[in-house]
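Section 5.1 Outputs to date
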Amino acid sequence: MRVAPGGGTAVQDNVALAEIELCGELIIAASTAAGEERLSLESIDQVLRVGEERERGEEWAARGGSGAGSSSGSGESAGSGA
């Protein structure tokens, strides 16, 4: 667990900030969904840009990267088991 040091210096967790941004995008998409009770899985994937992350990972692996994942840390790790 990280604790911000004294003296007013803030510690930024970029992964947490990215997750907060994605949650905000999902909330906006859900609030503007036209006539839908819930967002479909396809709509959620589109908001989270899941396909784009996979394509970038595949392109990176094709260029000689190790593994097919991306290093951005956003999107697929949370809730992709459905």
